[in-house]
């Protein structure tokens, strides 16, 4: 008994099947990109994937800018030199890029905080906190001034007057309080803008010190050390 062979699929069947699979792949890809038509589970997975990709991109940008500033920024290299003179040789490992979750990347407004200094851990750069490389440069110099003060003057960070003095110096010397930086923060004035910026930022920073009981104490500490610390531009000859 002979069996009847199955009919061969026509070329048009292959084309239809291929087109269907291609369309399916396109549809899934489009859904993943746009978020339309995804299940709640897929939406969550897509959100995590996008957040991780954004974080990776921010970290790479931060590390690239950091390397360039450590080599080429006059203010940064000047601070590094004087830190070496003070017995504190800073390496790239002492300056770390990390996400801080403090700024929406869709806005050009400066975040309140873009970095920090810890005597135990070095300098942290908020990779998601920078508008541009100049903003990062000012932040790096600000934190290097804190590091310099710690190495040179043995600052007691639990003493809010010590902290206030270093914050005044860092805001004054880093470029944090240029006119254009203040405009980006939403402050616009022509009269004593620099001094007002330095004072405001110092008070805000001291207020966040766990040893500071309230805003009034932070303001008092800044006022008490203002005259001597604002005039102290070391290691710079003048305000940067």
Automatic annotation (TrEMBL):
<keyword id="KW-0482">Metalloprotease</keyword>
<comment type="similarity">
    <text>Belongs to the peptidase M76 family.</text>
</comment>
<dbReference type="GO" id="GO:0004222">
    <property type="term" value="F:metalloendopeptidase activity"/>
</dbReference>
<dbReference type="GO" id="GO:0005743">
    <property type="term" value="C:mitochondrial inner membrane"/>
</dbReference>
<dbReference type="Pfam" id="PF09768">
    <property type="entry name" value="Peptidase_M76"/>
</dbReference>
<keyword id="KW-0472">Membrane</keyword>
<comment type="function">
    <text>Has a dual role in the assembly of mitochondrial ATPase.</text>
</comment>
<keyword id="KW-0479">Metal-binding</keyword>
<dbReference type="GO" id="GO:0046872">
    <property type="term" value="F:metal ion binding"/>
</dbReference>
<protein>
    <recommendedName>
        <fullName>Mitochondrial inner membrane protease ATP23</fullName>
        <ecNumber>3.4.24.-</ecNumber>
    </recommendedName>
</protein>
<keyword id="KW-0496">Mitochondrion</keyword>
<keyword id="KW-0999">Mitochondrion inner membrane</keyword>
<dbReference type="GO" id="GO:0034982">
    <property type="term" value="P:mitochondrial protein processing"/>
</dbReference>
<keyword id="KW-0645">Protease</keyword>
<dbReference type="GO" id="GO:0033615">
    <property type="term" value="P:mitochondrial proton-transporting ATP synthase complex assembly"/>
</dbReference>
<keyword id="KW-0378">Hydrolase</keyword>
<dbReference type="InterPro" id="IPR019165">
    <property type="entry name" value="Peptidase_M76_ATP23"/>
</dbReference>
């Amino acid at each position: 008994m002979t069996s009847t062979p199955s009919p061969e699929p026509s070329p048009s069947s292959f084309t239809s099947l291929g087109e269907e699979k291609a369309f399916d792949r396109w549809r899934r890809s489009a859904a993943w990109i746009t978020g339309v038509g995804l299940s709640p589970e897929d939406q969550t997975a897509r959100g995590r994937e996008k957040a991780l990709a954004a974080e990776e991109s921010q970290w790479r940008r931060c590390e690239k800018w950091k390397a360039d500033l450590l080599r080429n920024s006059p203010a940064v290299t000047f601070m590094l030199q004087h830190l070496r003179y003070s017995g504190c040789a800073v390496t790239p490992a002492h300056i770390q890029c990390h996400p801080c979750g403090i700024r929406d990347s869709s806005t050009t407004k400066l975040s309140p905080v873009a970095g920090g200094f810890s005597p135990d851990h070095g300098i942290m750069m908020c990779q998601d906190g920078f508008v541009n490389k100049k903003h990062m440069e000012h932040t790096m110099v600000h934190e290097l001034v804190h590091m310099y003060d710690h190495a040179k003057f043995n600052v007691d960070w639990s003493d809010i007057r010590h902290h206030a003095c270093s914050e005044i110096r860092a805001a004054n010397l880093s470029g944090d309080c240029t006119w254009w930086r203040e405009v980006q923060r939403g402050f616009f004035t022509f009269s004593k803008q620099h001094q007002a910026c330095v004072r405001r930022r110092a008070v805000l920073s001291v207020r966040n010190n766990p040893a500071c009981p309230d805003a009034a104490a932070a303001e008092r500490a800044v006022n008490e050390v203002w005259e001597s610390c604002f005039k102290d531009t070391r290691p710079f000859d003048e305000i940067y």
